[in-house]
Design brief:
binds magnesium ion, two-stranded antiparallel ribbon, globular, 32% strand, 60s Ribosomal Protein L30, Chain: A
Length: 157
Amino acid sequence: MFRIGNGFDVHRLQEGLPFRLGGLLIPCNKGCVAHSDGDVLIHAICDALLGAAALGDIGVHFPDTDAVYKNIDSKILLEKTAALVRAAGYTVNNIDTIVCLEKPKINSYILSMREMLAKILAVPVEQISIKATTCERLGFVGREEGVAAYAVTLLQR
Ligand code: MG
């Protein structure tokens, strides 16, 4: 039995904040404004995983009104999400993602991010795909006001 899920997330960028993406700290003059550490890629993946298992969304499980999740490392949220999905009887077949941002260029970090996420999810790195695109200087991503991420996953029971 296969279950598909999709996730989407956006965070606003602000100068002087740390920029965390795919579980890594990436050098950048801006970082994401968030209740958690603002890892937009991990948040999109969590929503895809929860969606595929029909377990609600990241806001239901880890509300941004709960002080427990203030500045939390999103890798912990992914670990908790993976445990929920596992408890529902699913394994991760694969995850494919797109990160939309103008700066910084993240190509040189993609393999490390895939390895990090694969380790947390206990799957081979080949099952995790991360792609990056700019938005051709259009919209909030193009103006470098924010970063967006999309994720699709296939779970198997
Ligand atoms: Mg988020």
